[in-house]
Each structure stands twice: as C-alpha cells, then as structure tokens.
Amino acid sequence: MRHPDQRTTTRSAASVLAPHLHEQAAAFLRGLRLHREHSAPTDAGAHGTEEATTALRHAARRISGTLHTFRAALEPAWADHLRTELAWLSGTLAREHAYAGRLVRLLESLHQLSGAPVPSARPPVPADGDRERAALGIGAARAGALLERRLTLARTRAHSEALQALGSARFHAVADAVALLASDVPLSASAAGPAAEVLHAPADLAEQRLLTAVAALPPDEAVEPYNEAQDAPWHHARRLLRLHRYAREVVQGAPDPALAGAGRALDLHQDAADAAAAASAAARTPRIAPATAYALGVLHAAQRHEVEAARGVFRETWPYAAVTAP
C-alpha cells in the first residue's frame, strides 16, 4: 500500500522526520498555551480548556506514535523515555473526556430506549414486549440517576487527576522536552540516509502489523454479541490503525482520507464497548431496585448492539484487502 512520492524519494529521512516532529511539538505547545489562557472557571473558559486539552492529547499521541514507529531514526533512549511520558500524559488527560462522553451516550440511549422497542437477541412475544417496555419506563429514570452519580464522580476524580498532572514536576519535564523538540530533534546517524529507505521500512511494518490484525478479526458468524472478551482484537486493531495513520502522515505529509471512515468506526466501537461495560458495572450495584437493574440490562444490550453495528461499518469502510482471515 506504499505510495512513494517526491517527498520521500529525493530527501533525507532527517529532512522529512524533523519538520514533522517540529510541527507536532508546536501544536502541543499551542494547546498548552491555550489551556493556560482558558483556565478561568467560566463557561467559555471551560469550553476553551476542553478544546486545549484535546489539542494537547492529539499532539501528544502523534508525537508518541512517531517516536514509536521511527525509533531507529532517533536516539533510542530519548525516544523511549519521551514516548512513555507522552503516553502517561495523553492517558491522564483522556479519562475525564471519556467519562463525560460515556455519560452522554448512556443517557441519550436510555432516553431513546424508554420509548422504543427493547433490543433483544430474540423477537419478543408481543404481550411480553409491552410488559418489558413498561418495566423499562419505570427503571429508566433511576438507572439514569445512578449512572450520572457514578460517572460524574469518576469524571470529577479524573479532572482532579488531570489538574494534578498538569501542575506536577513530571508534566513540566515533559513540556520542557517537547519545547526542545520544537527546535531540535535528537536523530540517529541513520537519519542521514534517504527517506525512502529509512522511513518507508518502519512505516510498512506498521502497516503490515495492522493488516495482520485486521485479517485476524473473527468473522461475524463466529461472534457472540454479548461476549466482551471478543472486543480485545478490535481494540488492538484500533491502536494499530492509529499508528499506521500517523506513519502515513510522516511519509506522505498529510492524513490519508481513505482511513478516516475505518478510524471513526473503531472509535465508535471503543465508545460503545466502554459504555456497555459501564452499564453492566452499574447493574451490579448492591440493593438496586429490580426495575433499575432491568433498565441497565436493556441499556447494556443496546450498547452491545452498537458494538456490532460499529464492526459492520468498519468492514464497509475498510479501504484495503478482506477484513477476515482465510
């Protein structure tokens, strides 16, 4: 799937890789500056802080992915250390956003389900279906309140952890390292070689790992809809797709639009799987009313249906070869 172009066939690896890292480091620093500017406790400030945090996370992921894939063209010890620190930062900042998005998804789904047919692996008997919808209507409000308490608490804790991280000496060390990266990239001797040789090999390896992971995804007929253990290969493919996308950005100089649809499908798959797990965990709360537990069970089923739907969208939008192993 490699498409050599003038960008990597006539230049050194250093002249391609260094400007890309400079650009991502500058994006990280812009996000950091915006975060500091919008830290006031107002609605506009909160919105600006969220945008700035997203920019920080995106830049951190791209730098980390680039350091991972093209490690051979960089000073290995430096690349490994900075990649580890950026992964810590990105993960810490992502948790608050993830909890907030999960709560919105679950409450919206509850609202839709309380007036819609109950999702089921089997067609319900009409009389039972009416009884099930009535029970769902009773339990939906309490289930929503329970989810809001649980996920708001988790989000508050994640917000505190993010603030602590952003004020820590560890974060300031990361920010200093990225600031240096904006002007100076510690390259290895091999980076002086042609970009077509030095950069394409690791980029092709990242692509091959992705293709292997996608080919190993279980076919639809072998999938058990409510078996969360079967999510792992899809989450792994999502991580590899992200690395592949970042590698293509380096060697081609721009994102590959052909991968956008598949990436969004795997993001939706992750979101739905996490939401289903949150509903399941809430249903295990001690001493909740049967109607509340029932509503959470229906909600879990709905999110597992969303997981299946996301897999179908991925298969439809995957731009390369067949997505199942022979």
TrEMBL record:
InterPro entries: CHAD_dom (IPR007899), CHAD_dom_sf (IPR038186). Residues 10-323 form the CHAD domain. It comes from the Bacteria. SMART domains: CHAD. This is CHAD domain-containing protein. It comes from Streptomyces salyersiae.
